[in-house]
Amino acid sequence: MLSSKVSGIVCTLALSSAVTAVKLGDSVIGSASEKQFSQEFPENYNILKFHGGNGPYSERRSYGISRDPPESCAVDQVIMIKRHGERYPSPSMGVDIEDSLAKVYGAGITEWKDDLAFLDDWEYFVPNKCWYNAETYSGPYAGLSDAYQHGTEYRDRYGDLWNDESVVPIFSSGYSRVINTARKFGEGFFGYNYTTNAALNIISESAVMGANSLTPTCDTDNDTSTCDKVPSTMPQFKLAAARLNAQNSGLNLTESDIYNLMAMASFELNARAFSQWVNVFTQDEWVTFGYLNDLYYYYCAGPGDKNMAAVGAVYVNASLSLLNEGPEKAGPIFFNFAHDTDITPIVAALGILLPAEDLPLDRIPFGNPYVATDIVPMGGHLTIERLSCNATAMSSKGTYVRLVLNEAVVPFNKCQSGPGYSCPLADYNSILKKSLPNYLTSCKVPKSYPQFLDFWWNYNTTTRLNYQRGPISCQEAETLH
Predict the structure, then answer these.
(1) Pairing with 187, which of 97, 98, 129, 436 sits 20 to 30 Å away (CA)?
(2) How far apart are CA 245 and CA 248, in angstroms?
(3) What is the pLDDT of residues 272-297, one digit of tens each?
């Protein structure tokens, strides 16, 4: 036994084969048999990261930067755009799923075996065709509860930006499930005051809205040649089909059926706590499925489409105006709701998460920064924070901008000199104004259409649309109610 005194505190080291502890008074501060931090990262695998844009929300894998504002800063303005919450499949995806299920059940198999043994008791999770398109309300990943919970979390984070008295506009594109997400988020954020202090503004998704839209379109060049080449199968799906066909004689699944059934498993989690279909497929097969979704978003709705940065520039340009005006003039809170394919153009316009080269169609470039589930899972959202910061040893007093994607800070590629890797507002302005394409000229927007985003400054403050009026029609999509 060795003993010594340091500033009146006795430190005793027990030298034996038993656990060695270092004590300060009566508190154990270390143990030779335990590690403070695990050194294992087993496969870095979570199934939610391989559902593409089909499955439940999951936070973005971060770079380790604190989500809270830097100690020297306070958020004085927040601009968010959120995808609708978890939903049932679209009608078109539903047709594909039902076709593959019909092949499964039409095989004449009386006793399911091995990976499909659960089918004796399983039922399709979509009650009937009217539920296609709708947001889910049941299960722990339900879209409506996702939106409400997000609202409560943002009330905790940004509630100080609201004075509990003023009426705050909320902006939603004109699609039923998006509107319902906005409503539930609003209920979560405003609580008992949602009825009186939130004002839902519904913005039509029609192309005639031009630039005054959360869902701008670009019909200049409809060349979809690369998007059309995005594969829906890879060799791993052939192995999956062969395995399931061998386990259950008479089954004749193809690679396309495998894709449909995997997509179904992703959507099933949106409505149920558990999907037995998820376990039918191997991790390698899910990794492949995830990448096929990355390809879709990249080439069909993201930076791989030459027009998408111009489409996203509408939102980015307008948000620059809000940031420059600041909360005193423009207001402190801007909550917006749209679709996944409205967020991916914004990410493209900002120039973040871009791969070094276009994504290959025939293999997976592991380490690819453009991962759909980290960008637009169900309920995915991009938040722009305006920070008011005091001077520090590394930065001066001033206004800074920070991008937060699915609750993880994503530093602006060309500017990270501010607190918490934020960017000075002046530099943020300068960089984007040089890089942003012109939506009007790039997409040849007719002069009869609105030429700029205007609704953030000209909005209604009535509460007439805060709640659904009447029943939702079967498979309701675009609406202004």
Answers:
(1) 129
(2) 5
(3) 999 999 999 999 999 999 999 999 99
